[in-house]
Every structure is written in structure tokens, then in C-alpha cells.
Amino acid sequence: MLDFFAIFSKGGIVLWCFQGAGVTESFGGPVNALIRSVILQERSGNNSFTHNALSLKYKLDNEFELVFVVGFQKILTLTYVDKFIDDVQLHFRDRYKNELEQRGALKFLLNNFEFGDDFHILLREAEGSSKAKAPVSMRTFNESQKSQKTVKSMIETKDGDKSKEQVGKKSKNAKKEGEKSGGDQAKAAAQTASKKAVETGNGGLTQEEIIERNRAKFFSKQLGGAKPEKSRQVKFRYCRCNCQVSLCSSQLIQVDSMKGDLRGVDYESSDDDDDEDEEVQEEDRGGFGGMFGMLKGLVGSKNLTQEDMEPVLDKMRDHLIAKNVAAEIASQLCNSVAKKLEGKVMGTFTTVASTVKQALQDSLVQILQPKRRVDILRDVLEARSQRKPFVITFCGVNGVGKSTNLAKISYWLIENGFTVLIAACDTFRAGAVEQLRTHQRRLNSLHPPEKHGGQPTVQLFEKGYGKDAAGIAMEAIAFARNQGFDVVLIDTAGRMQDNAPLMTALAKLIAVNTPDLVLFVGEALVGNEAVDQLVKFNQALADHSKTDKPRLIDGIVLTKFDTIDDKVGAAISMTYITGQPIVFVGTGQTYSDLRSLNARAVVSALMKA
Q1: Phi then psi for 596, rounded to 5 degrees?
Q2: Positions of the region Disordered (predicted)?
Q3: Most exposed residue of 136, 166, 209, 450, measured as fewest CB within 10 angstroms of its CB?
Q4: How far, in Å, CA of 532 to CA of 228, rounded?
């Protein structure tokens, strides 16, 4: 029934393994996939994993740094596997406790773990217990409740109707009384609320005026009483003449240079002293109570249990949800941390809260760091050496800023000496082509053709509206190859994740043109919606693709990052769902407002109270 069972250390040393009769394939492939996709990526909240036709169950032993993995065919329903893997873990720990307590990694190499006989005994007991349970027989008609009903019991008498009417009248009267009392309570609450508003000193200020006043106070505090400087706003004015390449001298656009790699996102906390203030408050609670409270939170060389971590994990889960992490992802992250820490031996003067927080912080950094190399400039140079354009496709839902961030990426590529062809494949939205034409004109004004041998650095390839987007993209790539463009940026129509016709068209565009990079553009403002969008986009691309290995999303562009303060949870949700990196971060409305993701800065903002 079982294909294999393996026991190995977290360092990769196999202590003992079992392979079922008739199984020819090695278990190395599924186990390596489990390590890469789950254990190394901090996704151990769920103890099951699927690899091709196999279903894997695993259990982590954090005290001795061991992993127990069992594999069986996915089509089988083995109800005893969970209990069986627990029994094997306990039995293996008890038998080889002395060997496992030795220090150093050599303990796994020097000791011989002969566990075959005990394993087969436990396996026979588990299989026997599952067979011993006889199937539940169906009840006969006489044993059912339906057989107890008679015709007389199903007829309603007049007395019964009267009693029902009386009950209905009573409930209606009670509702009316409740409405009256509720109205009186609402009036009283409104009066008290108005009194409190007057007492707070807000006067007749509106909510926006209160926010402006608080913002001014904050800036004056940060700048030492000085007035805050107004942020520089770049205003574009349209030229009255019909110039296509250059703008008038009164319309010069001032943006920062973006040569080289993008800068990482910086997070500046507005409450740097929050943690210190909390510590001072705890100390000021005073006397012996504060001292005993501190000692109560310490763990003295004991194994962490689920009960110890449960209160801290609940607070962490609520904190993550408040920071815009999707609720499902927050629960999975906390469960993963619990699995990672359960049974681990802590130091003498270490609190449970600090341990859980540090483990969660490490997990978040691990999730946000890219699992593969993301170097677009290097990839473009490699494509140029092969005399072909590097193709990037942008997709996403409506109104997230695909065209705007496409223009920012175009400016970044132009600053690094590449020529760009923009393919207008949004043939549905009115004004989409005109928007890209405006971006093309302004980008060419920043890099005039006179400075590039008379050739414009950005060109727009468009065929109007109502045409096949996949065909336009194919023609644009062929045109870029013939004209020697370095990069092709394909702008697609915004579409909701449950719009089947548009999702089919997107899957066709990607399957026909095989772009080098497929980027999903998403807002940093979304919470639970990010999970639904990415899951359904990937699912639609897989369903509508005609190949065995469908092309899915390769990376993420996170937009409107400057509007969320420290609620950066969408970055965690999107990366956790897809397993793909966040390649670009949009931080404003000018062409130079483009950054790369700084994982530690984002996690610092996320963990800030």
C-alpha cells in the first residue's frame, strides 16, 4: 500500500528508508520536491504534499531536527497514515533517544539506525486497525424516525393553530417593543456621542480637516518644528501644436535618472519609538507585579508546545490580517511557524513571544526573497546577443495600472540603453491606444532621437480596436525582430479573473507568442482579493492552454505601494500564492517612481506594531 517511508535529518542525511514491493522509481525525486517546495519555502502549515501521481504526508520533529515522510499513490484513500506517521515518530524517538541527543552532525553518520522490524510491526498494526472497523450498515425503515410518524401526528388541530397564532402575536408585540426600546437607545447613544465630540475639541472640523491637522503635527514633530516641504508634483501640459516626437520648451519633463539596477523600497517608520514606549509602560506597571510578569513569560530550557504558542500565534494572526495579509494566508503562515517550533528546546532566558515573532519574521523574509534569479537587464543583453527581442507580457484586472507601469519600465529600459517597442494589445478599452501613444511621445521627449542616431528609442505598434490581441502581439514581435528592437512590452486588456472569454484570449496570446516573461500587475491595496485573483488567473491560464506544461505567471508588479503606509500584506499574499517574486514595485506617478522589492524593509513594516 505504501510506496516509501523515509526518515532524514534537516541537514539532508537519510537515517532510514523503506520502499514498497514492486516500486521501481526512487523516492529521491518526490522528497526533493517536498524539500524545495515546502520545507525551504516555509510552507509547512499543511502536512500533505502532492507530486505527480504520489501523495506525501510528512511530520517535522524540531527537537531532534528530523523529517518523517511517507508516500503512497494519490488514488488511494489511506485513513491510517496520519496516526501511523505519529506512531513511527514516537517509536523512533524512544528507541534512538540516546543517539539523537548526541551533539554534532556526525551522530547521524556514526550511528546505525536499524528500524526495519519495528516499522513492519507498526505498519501491520495500522493496516489491521483500519480493516477491523466494519462498515456501518444502513438502518432499516423500522429503525428510522420516518417510521414513527403517523397520519394523526401529521394533522394539525384547531387548538394547535390557535396556539401558533397566539405565539405569532406575542412575537410581533415583542418585536415592536424591541424596536421602540432600540430607537430610544440609539437616540441616547447619538446624544452621548455628540457630547464626546464636543469634549474632544474637534469642534465642527470635518474628517479631512482633522487628518490634515494631525499630519501637520506629525511633520512638525519630525522636522523639529519646521514646516513640511510640499512634495514635488510634475504637471504635464498638452502641446497645442501637432508635434509627435519632441515637446515644446515650456513642457520639459523633469524626472530622476534610473541607470543601472533599481533601488529597493525603503520603509521609514513613523513610530520609531513604539517598542521602547511599550517596554517603558510595562516597566512602569510597577513593583513585584511587573517583575513576576516578566519571569512568567520566560521559558526555562523546555520544549515548546502548541498550547504555549497558541495565544501568541492568535495575536500574530490578527496582526497580519490588520496589515492586509489575506486571512487564509495569515492562518497558513502561523500554522507553519507552529509546526516549525513545536518541540524545539528553548534557551533559559527566552520568551515565547520573542521566539515566535523571530521565527515568523524569518519565514516572511524567506517567502519574499526570490527563489530564482531575476535580472531583466542581463536577460535583455543575452537576448540581444542572439539577435532577438526580449518579450514581456503584462496582465491583470481592470484599473491596477498596467499601462502606467509599462511606461515606467520602458523609461527604465531606455535609461539603460535599450530600445523598446510597445505593443498595444488592449483592443477593448476605449482610449487605451491613445494613452500609450501619449506615453510614447513623452518618453521620446526625455530621450530625443537626435541623441540616438536619429532613431526613436520608443515606438508604438498598434492596429486599432476590436482586433485579435494574439495576432497583434505576433506581428509586433516580428516587427521588433526585423527592426532590431531590444525589448517588446505587450500591454493587454484588463480583465476580471472570472471572465472566461477574456481569460481564454489571454491564454491564447501567451501560448501563441511564448513571451520571455509574464508579469501579473496587482494593487498593493487588495487583501483577500489578491488570493482570488492570482489563483484564478493561474488556473485560467492552465485550463485554456493546450499544452501539457502551461505557461503561468512568472512574476508580479505591485502598484500603488505609496498609498498603503505600513499595510504591506498584499506583497506576502501574492508571493505566497504564486511562489513567484515581486519584480517591480510602483511607488508614485512619475516615470522614475519604480523600485525593486526590499524583503527586509517590507517585513520590518509588516511586523511593526
Answers
A1: -95, 165
A2: 133-206, 263-288
A3: 136
A4: 40
